[in-house]
Amino acid sequence: MTDFSATRAAFHIPDGVIYLDGNSLGPLPKTAARRVSEVVTQEWGDHLIKGWNDCGWMDMPMRLGDRIGRLIGAEPGHVVVGDTLSIKVFQALAAAIKLNPDRRVILSDTGNFPSDLYMAEGLISLLGPDYDLRLVAPEDVSAAITEEIAVTLITEVDYRTGRKHDMAALTKKARAHGVVTVWDLAHSAGAIPVDLRGVGADFAVGCTYKYLNGGPGAPAFIYVSPDHAEKALPALSGWLGHDSPFAFDLGYRAGAGVSRMRVGTPPIVQMAALEAALDIWDGVDLQDVRNRSIDLSERFVAGVEAHCPGLVLASPRDPAQRGSQVSFRFEHGYAAMQALIANGVIGDFRAPDMMRFGFAPLYLDEDDIDAAVDTLRRVITDRLWETPEFQRKKAVT
């Protein structure tokens, strides 16, 4: 059993704050500052460039990849960390479509994160007019998987509503029709159990700054299944994905397995923060996390619906059909969220009218949920969202 009192103690949460935005940026692990300081002052400071060899910097992307791999059901040696999520989406998608050279359609859904769709559009602009990005409603993805499709690009958990795709069923159907799958786990990794190996996924990508708590700008990860690891060719063929980076060949030779999906120099300082965050996960069972997040989110939904008139549940009613977040629609959602944050409960907002709340059991408990509901009740019933300062839009919502 996971000791959630121990994991809660491992995070810095400011006094007077209830943090319901781990689905956007996880809080600071208490050991992260010390680990980053060690890398800066001792490793970088004392070893200088020797740190790449003496301190194991060059191997960090694969080491951290294996630690994340445990949390997403990946085979050892098939996840690597580095670059941003958008870069990893582009890499996975480009490699996947090359594996289906006789097909021209990328299938995604209208609930997907826009950056994923932008990456697909950019790739298509390079591939030529014969290629197409086909978007369907989330509930229509299964019916749209046919022999015409080259690749599916699906985010398992919808960033706005928390709606959860059935990864096993969609992957099974895709494989039956010869379709290569790319899964975005941005709102899955660290939130719900994932079994990439068990479902037979081809590619997966994800970020580490949400539920994995790696910090702002923490690097992304990419998974390539054993079936494709030696065949998948990265369109972004960076020097660290080369078979022998320090041979400085003028021509590219892909490295072994998933290491070829490395692009640029790894961000060692940021990876040090991620490493500290992953230490917390060593004693965590993801099924425990899932069970507890459902309990907390159900408690929140019941409280909001009982005490906050005007808020309408936008997430699936059945907790099994959503990830670890809940969203409510409210006409004045942006201003209401700003008022809520000013009163010590931090969630976020997604246009046009959606208030989002994330439930990370590593640092949340029932008392937090009850207090958050009570604060939201005051914001709504006292119409605190009408305060002019809460109406002004900020750069990040």
From TrEMBL:
GO terms for biological process: anthranilate metabolic process; L-kynurenine catabolic process; L-tryptophan catabolic process to kynurenine; NAD+ biosynthetic process; quinolinate biosynthetic process. Pathway: Amino-acid degradation; L-kynurenine degradation; L-alanine and anthranilate from L-kynurenine: step 1/1; Cofactor biosynthesis; NAD(+) biosynthesis; quinolinate from L-kynurenine: step 2/3. Its cofactor is pyridoxal 5'-phosphate. Pfam families: KYNU_C (PF22580). The keyword Hydrolase applies. Pyridoxal 5'-phosphate binds at L85, S86, F113, P114, S115, D116, T155, D184, H187, Y209, W239, T265. GO terms for molecular function: kynureninase activity; pyridoxal phosphate binding. It catalyses: 3-hydroxy-L-kynurenine + H2O = 3-hydroxyanthranilate + L-alanine + H(+); L-kynurenine + H2O = anthranilate + L-alanine + H(+). GO terms for cellular component: cytoplasm. It is an enzyme of class 3 (hydrolase). Its EC number is 3.7.1.3. It comes from the Bacteria. The modification N6-(pyridoxal phosphate)lysine is found at K210. Keywords: Hydrolase, Pyridine nucleotide biosynthesis, Pyridoxal phosphate. Catalyzes the cleavage of L-kynurenine (L-Kyn) and L-3-hydroxykynurenine (L-3OHKyn) into anthranilic acid (AA) and 3-hydroxyanthranilic acid (3-OHAA), respectively. Homodimer. Belongs to the kynureninase family. This is Kynureninase. It comes from Marivita hallyeonensis.
